[in-house]
Amino acid sequence: MFDIERWQEIFDTIRKNKLRTFLTGLSVASGIFILVILLGFGQGMQNGIAQEFEEDASNRIVVWTQVTTKEYKGLNPGRTIQMRNENYDHIETRFNDQLKDRSAMFRVRDAMVNYKKESVGYSVQGINAGFQFVENQYISEGRYINYQDHKNGAKVAVISNTIKKEIFKNGISPLNEYLDISGIQFKVIGVYGDMGGEREEERIFIPMSTAQRVFNGADRVNNLYYTLQPVENFDQAVAESTKFSNDMKQYLQEVHTVAPDDTSAINVFNTLEEVKRFFTLIGGIKLFFWFVGICTIIAGVVGVSNIMLIVVKERTREIGVRKALGAKPWSIVGMILHESIFVTAISGFAGLIFSMGLLEIFGPYIEVDYIVNPTVNFNVAITTVFILIFAGAVAGFFPAWRAANIHVIDALRDE
Questions:
Q1: Residue 3: enclosing H or E segment and its boundaries?
Q2: In the chain, helix, strand, coil percent, each to 5?
Q3: What's the number of domains the chain is made of?
Q4: How far apart are CA 227 and CA 58, in angstroms?
Q5: CA-CA distance, 44 to 372, in Å (whole number)?
Q6: Nearest alpha-carbon partner for 235 in 267, 275, 269, 268
Q7: Cβ–Cβ under 8 Å, residues 414 and 316
Q8: 3-state DSSP call for residue 252?
Q9: For residues 340 and 391, what is the distance between their CA atoms, to the nearest angstrom?
Q10: Do 156 and 212 have their domain in common?
């Protein structure tokens, strides 16, 4: 039942002690504010990491080779490991059921690219059709390199939006135009864009078979790219991706006579493993943020409890009069708890609204390295406030219980 006299008592007490009440409420509000802001930046870090990995396929696996660092089976360290077409073909056949997209890559060394009288310095790479999906690229004009281009050794090229802007000015379409790549004419069949931005658009792609044949690549391969079939569970996806990476690496080590513990000769980058590592790190950071925020809230709740003790001390004589007139102990407890919960609730919601408002207004504009659009789930935020209110009730209970157990005679004697 709504008791207007009770509320009048609470507001009278607050008016008499404005500064004390304000400082107490400020400590509680700051606790919620700090917790929400920290949780927001924790989510912002998770958003930033996710965005970094979204630039390429989420389950991308890349293989490259360097030199051996350990002696193995009579072979000295320092050998350069060179992958071949047969390695790519073997992996494709052996793991075909697991693979979604796949591509080999041959890097054309020291390629000179010219269009009419203009020369540009972009890298040229031979790839298979699946490279588009591994790198999360999209087509702006024309088409991408396909299986027939690779099979026929076609002299065709796909350029990026960035290259198009630099070479083909005044809105000229690059389709069916010819690029001179180290003295050989390649017909432009498409323009691609990359989700990673312009830094990923400084490459010209030609069919893998053409690159190897025309630029003396023989059957050499520089990199292997794969994505796996999607699964519903993230942990299962990580486990399958890790197993595939290990099995593939073991095969390459065996066929190239590399020591199993040589960590330099054959390298595998697994995006899912990196995602899991970063998310585990972010989870730890979030726990730390919760710890800091809750400690701050506890400090505020302790402040509420101390203030209630002071209130009880100041109103000892009043409490004695109430009890002498027949007030029940739980009536005294309710009176103190009411004020404690009111101060805690108002302060908690003030801190929540202010912090959520800041994140809502400025969050979308925050985009620094690994922190993008810090936000907090409203349900989580509102739950913390209700937990705070409960804590405020607990904080006020002990002073209230003390007030309820004051002897009437002692209370009336209090000065």
A1: none
A2: 55, 20, 25
A3: 3
A4: 8
A5: 5
A6: 275
A7: yes
A8: helix
A9: 10
A10: yes
Q: Residue 357 sits in which domain range?
A: 4-52+278-413
3-state secondary structure of 101: strand
Give residue-wise pLDDT tens across range 399-414: 667 666 666 555 455 4
Contact indicator for 391, 344 with CB cutoff of 8 Å: yes
Sequence-distant (6+) residues with CB within 8 A of 222 are 64, 83, 105, 106, 107
Residues 6+ apart with CB under 8 A from 378: 356
* Region at 322 (left for phi over 0; alpha for psi -120 to 50; beta for the rest): alpha
pLDDT tens by residue, 373-395: 787 777 777 777 777 777 777 77
Residues 6 or more apart whose CB falls under 8 angstroms from that of 44 comprise 363, 366, 371, 372, 373, 374, 375
282 and 328, same domain (yes or no):
yes
Q: For residues 45 and 304, what is the distance between their CA atoms, to the nearest angstrom?
A: 33
Q: What is the pTM of this model?
A: 0.66
Tell me, yes or no, whether 233 and 218 share the same domain. Answer: no
DSSP helix/strand/coil, 121: coil
Of 216, 242, 264, the one marking the end of a domain is 264
Which residues, in sequence order, are CB contacts of 284 under 8 Å at separation 6+? none
Give the integer Cα–Cα distance in Å for 201 and 73.
43
